[in-house]
Amino acid sequence: MTIDTRALGFGSGERAIYATDPWTTRGRFYPEAPSLTRSEFQRDRDRIVHTTAFRRLKHKTQVFIGPDSDHYRTRLTHTIEVAQIARALARALRLDEDLAEGVALVHDFGHTPFGHTGEDALHEVLLPFGGFDHNAQSLRIVTKLERRYAEFDGLNLTWESLEGLVKHNGPLMTRDGQGTRGPVPQPILDYCELHDLELASFASLEAQVAAIADDIAYNTHDIDDGLRSGYLTFDMLEEIPFLAGLMAEVRARYPHLEPSRFTHEIMRRQITRMVEDVIAVTQQRLQALKPQSAQDIRNASQVTATFSAEMAETDRQIKGMLFKNIYRHPDIMRVRAGAAQIVTDLFKAYMNDPALMESHYWVDHIAGLNDGAKARHVGDFLAGMTDTYAIRAHQRLFDRTPELR
């Protein structure tokens, strides 16, 4: 795949015709006067950064639970890396950079403590009450659970930011109303009854670059953290042709490089090649689609910002290596079991006695609720916890708390 460098947006300052225009936004659920100094998507991004949910990401697991090193990624540092890549892609493709960055910054708001382990455990205990989905939880946070503004709950983000949050990974429904990846989470359906996010269409191109930036970021930094932890070795990377090629390239240019610099040189090349691949594929699809508006991107028959077939295969191989050597490593699985026990124990304790959730602002109203409504509030409380808060909460309530090392 080759890039048309003449079409890149570096330094042009002009949005493409298919970019989302902040000055013609579909607006906010609660109307607000426009800002004199910021576009609507700038305001969204700024509101996201100033939330409690954003700050909590610094103590939520990305891969390694309770890490002994300060250098492993957390959910916050992962989010910042995703936002950087999303903004770079948006600039190259002449999109609205603020919208792309905002979607990237908010995309993991709904994640529980202990990463996907916590999400799986919370989903299991909430199955009788509709289950748990981190994307739906992100929507709940920005439309209901953040309590900062005098005139509304949530952040009152624009329609475009909410659409990007919900649909950055593609449509959630087919045109005939069927879920594309199983049933659509009820919180998303409930919100769309009030404010239709058009679940059967693709999201904006800004949201799509945020989604592919997520893949690029964690494929790269999970390798970096895996090498740092010792769960991955350079020999393991050699088994993937794409990574073997990058390593050969670095060795040829820097034959005596120390391991830490060698790792970084591989990672920076990996990000560059993946970003360039996405730009080239997206340009090719834009040329075929010839969109005249952002709505044409939404109505397209396929995703516009994605990997080439070759890079998609590399992505599959990298994920397979990470699952085999890190995510499913016996040491990690043992720690994951302890983390799941913490979430399960806390859920049962709070369902039995909601008064134990002393810092939850709904605690005084939960007693009269049915089990489904009570479970959702308990789920909100648990999902909002950081790793450290969940561990301390468990230590207060139970004689023994699993050691997450």
TrEMBL record:
Q: Which GO terms describe its biological process?
A: dGTP catabolic process
Every HD domain range: 75-219
**A Pfam family matched by this chain, by name?**
HD_assoc
Question: Is Transferase tagged as a keyword?
Answer: no
Please give the SUPFAM superfamilies that the UniProt record associates with this protein. Answer: HD-domain/PDEase-like (SSF109604)
Q: Which GO terms describe its molecular function?
A: dGTPase activity
Keyword annotations:
Hydrolase
Q: What family, per the record?
A: Belongs to the dGTPase family. Type 2 subfamily.
Q: What is this protein called?
A: Deoxyguanosinetriphosphate triphosphohydrolase-like protein
Originating species: Gellertiella hungarica
Kindly list the organism's lineage. Bacteria, Pseudomonadati, Pseudomonadota, Alphaproteobacteria, Hyphomicrobiales
